Amino acid sequence: SLVFSENFDGPWSDGAPAGWTKVYTNGATDWIPYEGGVVGHPSSLNGTTNALFYDFTWGPETWLISPAIDFGEYTGTATMTFWYACERWYSDQDEFSVYSRPSAADPWQELMYVNTSSAWTQASLPIVNPSSAFQIAFRAYAGFGYGVCIEDVAIVGSTPSSPPSVVSPSSVNVDVGAACLGGMIAGTNGA
Taking the model in full, what pTM does it have? Predict the structure, then answer.
């Protein structure tokens, strides 16, 4: 079942989509809503806006952090999919990482790192420790490329599987002697 989705077409304020937050780790470059990458590298994935991080210099780095995601009953197997693009400008390349954590009190765990040129590509990542306050984050680093584009984030989860039934030894009643004797008699009858 779909637990969370973001297409970046809704309202933005202060460098982030509604409900998301941004954290500068170097410089003060915001993520913005944009159609594709800088000067159409690449063009829009589906004709609407995506999240874009770019700066025509080297070094700025900003995190885009999701609101708390409540998995509710869907804390079994979970997967996040999203589209990304990160095209090179000559030899200059931006880069980005994807992170998750069970709650704001937990450390971030890196799920993916991209530092190679790519047109729109879909990623599918397993989610570990889904919870009632789960978060994802995209960390982008400007390396004078055409920008980091993120689009159509979706997280799906399933209910945990029921544990297998366990049979207690006291509920099994087998007459071992009769079973063995029956096998021996059956074996000797054919001789």
Answer: 0.83
What would the 3-class secondary structure string for 78-115 be? EEEEEEEEECCECCECCEEEEEEECCCCCCCEEEEEEC
E-strand ranges in the chain read 2-6, 12-13, 16-17, 21-26, 32-34, 50-53, 58-65, 78-86, 95-101, 109-114, 118-127, 135-143, 148-157
Q: Tokens 């984030």 belong to which residue? A: 153
The tens digit of pLDDT for each residue in 139-148 reads 999 999 999 9
Per-residue pLDDT of 85-112, as tens digits, reads 999 889 899 999 999 999 999 999 999 9
